[in-house]
# Entry
Amino acid sequence: MNITPEMKAQLQEQKKQCIHCKLISGEQPGAKTVFKDSKTTAMLDIYPFVKGHASYMSIEHYPMPAYIPGDEFTHMFALIPELAKATQKATVSRGFNVFVAVGGVAGQMSPHFLVHLLPRDPDDNKDQFSFRAKDTMDDGTIKMLAQNMPIMMNNHFGRHPNNWHTGKGNVPANLSKIYEDNTVIYEDEQVLCVAPSVSHGKAHLIVYSKDEQKDIRKLSQEQSAHLFFAASFASTALFEGLKCHATNIVLKSGQAKDNPSGRLAIHVFGRWQEDGLQTMNWKSEQTQENLDSLAKEIKSNTLTIKFKSDKKSASNPAPAAKVPIKSIAPKVTKITEKKPATSNSVEDQIRRAIERAQR
# Structure
């Protein structure tokens, strides 16, 4: 999105009070940094969900994904597989979660947007991400999402062309049943996004990689960035179309109690106040452990991580015309709830940012 001078001024004022910006700059001591490059950094969370829990973020201050420039978003999410590999090696874990909260209802606690990197094991006694299907999404909602998400992705490819993208691609054998049993919202050569036939909550999409069935660590940087772009646009489609208060993005990879199949998938949820999904938002106490040795071990595994420019992108492409988003189907109104009255909440900031980005 284009950031106006007024928005830049607001961000600079927000940045002055941001604890994460102070930790990054060193103004606030105590950060247990496990990775840092020119655009991103990861540091161990002092309120860990699990051992090895790291908060991963842009060095520049962005309050929500809508503010992050496309090249920086690519850079940030391209490194997830290698950061997962480094963290899992240091913690000897068999699974991995990426947890993203956009908005206070979804669990976003800081005005500095960040991503939670969570090494997981079947015996870690955590079950926050067991998504038990019990709801059904409205037909009008599904139709609207199936119209709007492809438009968003088309606009994305217009801004960030890739030579590999020519259409929908093929469906790998491991996704054939998922393809048949659910409603396809969007697909291309690398990803498949579906609305599950029975959902966890009233706004639930699932994004699968066509390149890898179980392990995020096996994706290339380009594949990882595209997978998260698709999940981000799925989140935007829910937020923009349903006027929800917030969204969650949850990646599952490998073995954990709440991922017994070990399948690699990204679950995207629209969130509302009192929507019954609060168990996803964990509460942790400040750790009393000395994190120095763990930070050193993870950092030693991240020293070789470097962002690689995408050489497959088309050179000097002509910009594609931006396609307008389709209007919302009338049936969607029956699941829309009233937005909280507070005008300066994180949710309202996100809503305004998304609305500006779509103009």
